[in-house]
Amino acid sequence: MGNIKNILFFINCIATIVFFMACSSPEENEIIESTPPAEKVYVTGAETIIPYHTLKMYLDENFSQMYFLDTKFNESHGGSYVLDYFDEGGQGMDSYPSITIGSVTFGNNYWVSDKAVVGMPVQLKDISNTLTFDFKTSQLEANDIDDKWMASINFIFDNYGTETSEPVASERDYDLVIMHAHHNFNDSVQDKPLDENTKTTHWYFARNSDKSLKPYHLTIDGKTYTYAVRYKFFINSGDKNNKTHLKFIPYGNTELPEILKINVKEVIQTTKDYLPYVNLTPELRTLAETNIALPNAWLKSINAGYEVYTGNATLNIEQFRVNL
Q1: What's the confidence (pLDDT) of residue 58?
Q2: Of 267, 280, 293, nearest to 207 (Cα)?
Q3: CA–CA dist 232, 203 (Å, integer)
Q4: pLDDT digits over 246-273, tens only?
């Protein structure tokens, strides 16, 4: 009798297994996804990819190529690109392959952005306290002895125009650059006073009364990073003689923020607030006060890109996004 029960139990188990196998479809036993691979989209010249987000790449495409992945350039992610850079030779900076968010000039036209979409154009006095941007970069094979590059953010101001006017290059008297990742690039935080013999560019850092740097503190996700604030001036440089060029240079940090997060209103105001801490002649101070952070000036756009000089490297902007 016991053997019969064992046989019946075994038959019942087999029947149960067969039943579930018969009722189960292949889709329930394995997840089958057919997500198409991201497409590489190559860009040369200037091209608007999504509204008010424009890629610019003016390097010789026989040497260097830029592309973006269609899944990583959209309204929610912002802009991105991959630059396979190869030095073309020559002297100085080759180019500034970049993403422009805001108003932009290309194709002999000036395209005005929509403030409701990207927060620009906007007068400095009206910039929202919540206007920020996120900037994330990465690099591959970019730290060789002959590689020279710098990732940076550039603000495009217009001190004299209107909301819809194109900034005049010769009248761009207020520049603001935020230095990010770089290699073989000058990140010195020493003043370079005017040399009466050579009469070339000269610069000065905001400093405390004891001559130490007066740092700009940037806190991101609970971690604080320090930046030196540099004021640069020009001489024997034509229209540039009227310019005041501001640059925030990271220093004293063992690493850069993984994602650079900047409050636009705060960083612009800092360029004005730190001016009293810079050792300038009366003439230079007057020039700086005339140019810097004027309430009625316009912020027309913000650029993110790489200054490229020499070497052979893959330089990535993984994300550049403006947040309203």
Answers
A1: 95
A2: 280
A3: 4
A4: 999 999 876 899 999 999 999 999 999 9
CATH class of 85-323: mainly beta
Stated pTM of the model: 0.87
So where are the chain's domains? 85-323
